[in-house]
Write a sequence for this structure.
């Protein structure tokens, strides 16, 4: 019984730490713009992004952050918030990122894929003629993984 309580409290403490870490990272990334003339945000994050061509376009002045989106999915109204969104009206493409702080990429992978699929469906409703791509940015190792 005592070990069960210890496991429960450890799990709760780890969950609280993960939530606070995720919230902190989201806040830092929301404020990050990488621009050759005038970058803003956390200098360590800026340096990482500057060395990652696959991430740079998501952190420009034209990238949108914390974008609300809502609509009907499978007969239910849903409201979501996309971490980073790029819309290119010339090429009719939309790319979006969802940040994840997990160190084990497999634990919630099905949940995360479903989440990104919902984002894609909502975006497709608003932009039916656009090609939509969705990515997870794993913040523990800065890997950008294409999901959609």
């Amino acid at each position: 019984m005592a070990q069960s309580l210890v496991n429960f409290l450890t799990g709760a403490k780890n969950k609280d730490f993960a939530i606070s870490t995720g919230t902190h990272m989201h806040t830092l990334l929301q404020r990050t713009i990488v621009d050759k003339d005038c970058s803003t945000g956390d200098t360590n994050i800026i340096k990482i992004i500057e060395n990652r061509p696959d991430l740079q376009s998501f952190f420009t002045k034209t990238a949108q952050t914390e974008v609300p989106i809502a609509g009907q999915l499978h007969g239910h109204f849903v409201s979501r918030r996309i971490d980073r969104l790029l819309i290119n009206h010339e090429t009719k493409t939309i790319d979006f990122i969802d940040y994840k702080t997990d160190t084990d990429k497999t634990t919630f992978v099905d949940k995360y894929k479903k989440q990104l699929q919902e984002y894609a469906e909502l975006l497709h409703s608003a932009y039916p003629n656009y090609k939509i791509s969705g990515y997870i940015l794993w913040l523990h190792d800065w890997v950008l993984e294409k999901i959609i």
Summary: DSSP finds four helices and five strands in the chain. Residues 2-146 form a domain with the Lambda Exonuclease; Chain A fold (CATH 3.90.320.10).
